[in-house]
Structure formats: structure tokens, C-alpha cells
Design a protein that fits this description.
Elements lengths: L2 E3 L24 E6 L3 E3 L28 E6 L3 E6 L6 E6 L6 E6 L9 E6 L4 E5 L5 E6 L2 E6 L10 E6 L12
Antiparallel strand pairs: 1-8, 2-3, 2-12, 4-5, 6-7, 8-9, 9-12, 10-11
């Protein structure tokens, strides 16, 4: 497979400062979708999470609300972090566990037992693949209805690990984000 880092076209935002209660001016927002027998939106709404706040892959409807908006910070060298508009600037997307038992949720930066930095790769199939930062093959994948991990070379190029990161035009969407 031919792959390249995604930093070339991704508009990253300024990471929130510790204790921040507002987003930095100019924060760029995206929607994130993963392919799992059809595209599924990452959304932190209670109806798309289990009772522990773990992200489930059941949202096939595009939403225009804060739960579906993501800011991305970082770079190829140090990894990327994902912040959700509804969760606020004090929480970051984190994953714990391994393989199909892994679970993804919003956590405080540096939460014990969670990985919060990720690598983003643009594959020749035109889709993005996201893995735990610094790992060889530990890719985010849709497993048993959850956002989980698949630690294999087969994940790169597999539809269950394929992402699209779609720009949000706040001028066309009903929700507004307070900065």
C-alpha cells in the first residue's frame, strides 16, 4: 500500500489551553464518519453512546449539532487529538482496551489508561485511516457496533477502518459554537 501523512491538507486548530472554557478563535470544525456497512457519524449524543459514554456506530443520519462537530489539533510528528464541540475544550477523544474490546469516549487530557493521540494516514483508496499514535497497525475500526481497534496490517485499506473527515460550514448549519 502507498500511504502518506494527512497533515498536507488537514486544517488543524489550536489546542485548548489547560482549564480552557472556550474554543480558540478560528477553530476549524469537522464531521467524522467511519465506514461500517454504510457510513456512520461519530456523535457524542446520548443516543449514540452506551451508558458509560462509549461511542457506538449506530448514527447513519447526518446531524448538524455540537455533538457531531470535531476539532483536530496536532501534527504528524506528535500525533493528532480530537475535541468534540459539545464535550467542550476540557475533554479529548480517548481509547482504552484492545481489539474488539477497546472503547472510545471523551476523557480529560492525560486520563490514565487512555490513548488520546492518533496518527492519520491518507490511503491510495482516497480514505483516511486513524491509528493510535506511534503504533504500527493499531487502527480504529468498527467492531460489534462500537468504535474499537483492529491491530493488523489488514486494517489499512479495509472499509471498516476507513474514515472521511468532512468540513463543517458554520454559516450553513443551525448550531453555533461559542468562542
Amino acid at each position: 500500500y502507498s500511504v502518506e501523512p494527512y497533515e498536507k491538507t488537514l486544517q488543524t486548530s489550536t489546542a485548548p489551553a489547560a482549564g480552557a472554557t472556550a474554543w480558540a478563535d478560528g477553530t476549524t470544525w469537522y464531521k467524522m464518519v467511519i465506514n461500517s456497512v454504510g457510513w456512520r457519524y461519530l456523535d457524542t449524543s446520548a443516543s449514540y453512546c452506551d451508558g458509560n459514554g462509549n461511542l457506538k456506530m449506530s448514527n447513519t443520519a447526518e446531524a448538524n449539532n455540537l455533538n457531531s462537530y470535531w476539532a483536530i489539533t496536532g501534527n504528524d510528528t506528535n500525533g493528532y487529538k480530537f475535541y468534540n464541540a459539545a464535550a467542550g475544550p476540557s475533554k479529548v477523544l480517548g481509547i482504552t482496551g484492545s481489539e474488539d474490546g477497546a472503547r472510545m469516549t471523551m476523557v480529560a487530557e492525560g486520563a490514565s489508561g487512555y490513548t488520546t493521540s492518533f496518527d492519520i494516514t491518507l490511503h491510495t483508496d482516497g480514505y483516511l485511516y486513524i491509528k493510535k499514535h506511534g503504533t504500527v497497525n493499531n487502527y480504529i475500526n468498527c467492531r460489534d457496533g462500537y468504535v474499537a481497534l483492529w491491530n493488523t496490517t489488514d486494517a489499512l485499506g479495509n472499509s471498516g477502518s476507513a474514515f472521511q473527515i468532512l468540513a463543517v460550514d458554520l454559516n450553513k448549519n443551525a448550531s453555533t459554537i461559542k468562542t
